[in-house]
Structures are given as structure tokens and as C-alpha cells.
Amino acid sequence: MPIEITMPRLSDTMEVGTILHWHVAVGDEVSSGDLLADIETDKATMELQSFDDGKVESLLINEGEAVDVGTIIATIVSEDEEPTVDNIPSSSDIPVAKEAEAPTATVHTPSQKQYGGPRVSPVARRLAEEHGVDLASIQGSGPSGRIIKRDVLQQVATEATTCETTAAAETTKVPQPMAPAPIATAVVQPLVASSPWQQDRSVPLSNMRQIIAKRLVESKQTIPHYQVTMTFDMDPLMEMRKTLNVQLAATGIKLSVNDFIVRCCALSMATHPEFNASFGGDCIHYHGPVNVGIAIALPEERGGGLVVGSIKHADQKSLRTISQESQYLSKKARETGLSPEEMGDTTFTISNLGMFGVDNFTAIINPPNSAILAVGSAVEKPVVRNGELAVGHEMTATLSLDHRVIDGAMAALYLKALKELIENPASLLV
């Protein structure tokens, strides 16, 4: 019996997933842990891996197509079981994308790759696509003539050597007399060159963008937002950060301003439990663990968008640990995507645009949180210190709050506690 691969639930709120790219074709042999496809969820682009050994029998969903969680997207047969005629999908069985939809990649069917043709490992196929290598020109050295990674790399090296030899031969040719240059004709060029960005165009929203848009609208429409802003003296924190980073240089750890902010927020939440709470309709749910979420912007090659990495029990962790976890979450989010566990269970969120030079902004609450802190940059400006004019660093941060859970007086007390920690950073080391 074929093994059915279904669209997995990769986040706690995921209902629909989009197949961005298949990394295997019909007839490919796969092992447990092999990459099958890239899937776009409501939060990030994630990798789908195989949990079984066998041969890909069918790919039932086109690239670019969105389906509900639990939908069968592919089938695999065990190594000792060959696909039957009935199981091999015909051209009529392969879903065809609607004309109105964005172009999708062609699903690999048996007509494109016959079971009797050359067999290619998923890794080798991926390398061949990256380097533009024609698999038909390669003699496989794997079991039963299968083309493997080594064969593709060898072909890439061979083609590179051939190109270099051809280029060298071209440079040694005897130059021929040049024909008289034609009389140039003046061509009037526009003062400003036309650019694709200057033309009307429509770009379909990715599944992630659609979900983000839906949630932000729901958050803004259903949660009674209000904002409270405070300015912080950053000179003591900046000085301590500089000193600690010199001491930690040998370890490879470099503390960021945001690492300090995360710890300050977490410690303040521990003493102001309403900031570690959620609105429950007929109750206010106070959370035990203090889990601080950090907003991470994804690069365009990963579909753009925004994800929130979760630093669990942040009030119990040192600056060094917070820094290591923040760097890990940011790197993994931008390269491969975060797991549901790495994004889940946040009770408070920090959105920091200070590294982009933004002085002040407001953020929309990330449900089910009751508050989010929008952090601006530490700006050097004229300030008054002890009644005298001086030059110092100041940072503006704005709380967006759910008025159903947190009143204005609570917000003021929280910011007061936060200000005390930020402006006296030595307390963070205790």
C-alpha cells in the first residue's frame, strides 16, 4: 500500500499550506529525513521532510497551489514495492493550474521521467538545476546506474574546464583587420530610462502575506488599542554594553541593545503580571512562563513577511543566553524557517526598528498578547543632565496595549519599572 503524504500542520494556527517547490520527482528514491518540498504557511516557509524510505509514486499538488491541512499531496511506495499501472498517475490525474493563477512549475509525471530512464537522487537533481547541467549527458555511478551528487559535481567541473579552454583559445586568435566603422546615427534617448517599477503591475499575495493581512486587520478591529510612549536615557546601557562586549569578544558573543531590552521587559513582566496575560472573553488568563517574542523580518527570497521567534522563560535567562537564542532564532528564520515550537507560546512581543534608524513608531498587537513594545533607535542628541546641557543617547519606545486587560495606570507603572532597569543596567547582571 502506498504511503500517503499529507499537508502537515506546521503551526498552531495553520489551516492552509502552499507548495512552493518540489525537491523530488516521480520515481525518485527517498530516505527518512530527505527534503521533499518547501511549504509556505501562515507564518513562514518551512521544509517538508520524508519520514519513510521508498520511491516517490505520485505528486498530487502543483507548485504554487494552496490546499487545506490534511490533504494528500504525494504518495510513496516502499523499496520492495514497485508502482503499479493503476498507481501511476496519468496526465489527466495531475492537477492543472487555472489560467488566472500565477505561473506554476510543471509537475513531474511519468511522461517526463520514465521509470526505465536514468535514476537521479534528489540531491543530484537539485545540484543539476542550480548549475544548469543536462542530466541526460551524465553516466551515473551509483547503484543500478543512479546519478548521484558526485556525478553532477564531476560534470560541473568538466564543463568549467571546457569553458576555460575555449576562452583561452579565443584569446590566441590572430586579430583580423577591422572593417570601417559605419557612420554613427544620432539616437535620441529619453532623459529617464524606463523601469519596471514605473509600470502598473499587480503581484499576487503569498499565503503568508494573506494570513498576516487578515490577522492584523482582525487585531486592529477587535482589540481596543491605545499607546503609551516613554523616552529612556541610554548612556549607562550603551556604556555597559561596550564594556561587556570587550570582555566577551573571545567567546564570539556580541550583545545587542535588543538583548538588554528583552531582559528588561521580561523582568518587568515578572513583577507586572497583567503584561503576561491574555483576554479570554469572559476572563483574563494569566500565563505562568514569561515568553518574550522578537519580531524578525524575512528576506524577499524567503517570501518576505514577518515572523515572531519566542524566547522561553526570558526572565530566568542571562544576557548571554538571550543573545545566543536571539541570534539563533534570527538566523534560522531567515535561512530555513522556524519550527512551530520556536514561534509559539509568546506572551509579549518586541518589535525593534532601531537598527534601521527609525526614531519612533507604533506596532499592532500580536494576538493573543495584550501588549507589544515598539523600540526606536538610541539617538545622540542634546539632553539635560543634572540641570546642565550635555550630549547623550536617548531612546523612545511605545507600548501598544489591549485596554480590556491593561489600564493606563498599569501601563505607566510598567514603563516606570522598565525605565528603572534600562537606566540602571547593572541590576540586569544580578
How would you describe this structure to a colleague?
The protein has 430 residues and is α+β, with helices and mostly antiparallel strands. The chain folds into two domains: 3-117, Beta Barrel (OB fold (Dihydrolipoamide Acetyltransferase, E2P)), CATH 2.40.50; 224-429, 2-Layer Sandwich (Chloramphenicol Acetyltransferase). It is 27% helix and 23% strand. The protein has helices at residues 122-131, 149-171, 207-222, 235-248, 257-271, 319-335, 340-343, 408-423; strands at residues 3-6, 16-22, 29-30, 35-40, 45-49, 54-59, 66-68, 72-77, 225-233, 277-279, 284-286, 292-297, 306-311, 348-352, 371-385, 388-402. The chain has a six-stranded mixed beta sheet. Strands 1-8-6-3 form a four-stranded antiparallel beta sheet, with no helix packed on it. The chain has a four-stranded antiparallel beta sheet with strand order 5-4-2-7, with no helix packed on it. β4 (35-40) and β5 (45-49) form a beta hairpin. Mean pLDDT is 82; it is low at 84-116.
